[in-house]
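Dear colleagues,

As part of the handover before I leave the project, I'm documenting each prediction I ran so the next person doesn't have to rerun anything. This entry is a single chain, and its sequence is reproduced below.
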Amino acid sequence: SMTELVSDLQSRLDRKAVASKRRWWEQYLKGDALFRGVAMDDVRKSVTGWVADYALLSLSDRDLIWLIASLVSKPHSEDKLAATLLLQEHAIPAGRLPWRQIRGGKVKIVAALTDPGSIRRYLEGVGLPARAPPIAPARPHAQQEFDMEYSGSAA
């Protein structure tokens, strides 16, 4: 059944979970999101194996959408990531669920980070700089004189 497919993926993710990673992420995001503690690469590998083992791309569009929606609705962040990977790296590239046909070509934003502190903590947590690089000093212009001829008055 479809529910058993989701349970199988969750079991795969549970086997890759690292308690220290779970604690770090939950503390880092101050409990705003639940984590199993599975690295992104392990989520990707689990989804890829799951798609292949069950030939998920042979399911109907309706069933694929159900799987994606089911994973998005789960409380753990890795499940939501798995839904994104299923859609972005498997269904759409295979010509299934063409993006422009989903929701009439409109993307629904479900969350946005707007608090500068949250954005900084997230970026630093994933190893990206939280500050823009410094602006480089202006370089002197190479041309010291104009290369043109004067041919009369401006009037």
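The first helix runs from residue 2 to 16. The helical segments are 2-16, 19-28, 40-53, 61-73, 77-91, 116-125.

All the best with the project,
I.
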